[in-house]
Amino acid sequence: MRSSPTIFIIPTGIGCEIGGFAGDALPSAKLLAAASGCLITHPNVMNGGSLSEVDERIYYVEGYSLDRFAKSEICLRKVRQQNIGIIFDSSIEHDTLVRHLQVADACRATLGINIGSYVITDIPLGVEYSDNSTKISTGRIKNPMALLDAGKKLISQGTTAIAIVADFPSQKGNDNIDLYRQGNGVDSIAGVEAIISHLISKYLRVPCAHSPALQPIDIDYDLDPRAAAEEIGYTFLPSVLIGLSTAPDLIELPDYSPHGEDIHPYQVESIVVPSCALGGEAVLASMEKGLNVISVKNNSAIKVDNQYFQYQKLIEVDNYLEASGVLLSLRTGIDLKSIRRPLKSIKNSQIK
Q1: Predicted model pTM
Q2: pLDDT for the residue numbered 59
Q3: In sequence order, which residues have a C-beta less than 8 Å from that of residue 49 and are 6 or more positions away?
Q4: Which of 67, 186, 236, 290 fits 211 for a cystine, CB–CB 3.0-4.6 Å?
């Protein structure tokens, strides 16, 4: 059965019930990949701290690059292995840096991931993030050129994919972090994490993903299972390295030489997105192309739904189980109306 390339997005930092925590959307991604045969998604969906998974049907693409793919600016080329380089923020404490380097060596020794080199930024990145749990997660970095200069050094040494580890302010005593760990509020650091990875994607045009360097915090006896993946290791770097290890190359369009394993934007038939988050670039580009938009109920801190667009090819579903069934129906050519009830008789086109 032919595959039906599908984009799967859960925006970062808006507190989605599924996908607003550490890798808790990964089971949904695996199911959607099985139903479609080819799923293009982003690190927010796949990264679970120390936990992640490689699935040949899933293409791991940073969010800014995923938007470019949806807008037909790039295609994706499957690779056997990326040569990963790591950028470390120079303000990371020595012991924390050593822990991260040990994680990199562990991934090389146990998973066979190709990690060629690392570089430390010349000056601290200066990460700042919002701590208001009632709003969309956001923030900034004070020294973006330090990040880009470090990335350029790695690329000049043969790096083909970049992992970034930035130093984040201590979260001890932060009430909003406690709320997040208990399954409420928004992940405070997610927004600035996206800004960091977007910078590398926009200016250096290589696969990338970010992992925060955080100091350990006290045990939480009322921990929400969706946040548990963040509690089981010293760093969040393993999932980033696993994802980047086979992340596709980003091939600029339209001037490129076709390759048999390329995934071209014109092959995409559907996009799966929370019903509350239809305003993103990838979704709008998909609407312009007339693709199927599978809108899944997945509450968040925002509400940009189809009342603002009135898009005719939008398919509303209650959960990702149902979304997977829709994808399988589309993939196999089964009319969705034939499955739903009541089933109406066909119309005489001559009768007005």
Answers
A1: 0.91
A2: 98
A3: 22, 23, 229, 230, 231, 232, 233, 236, 238, 239
A4: 236
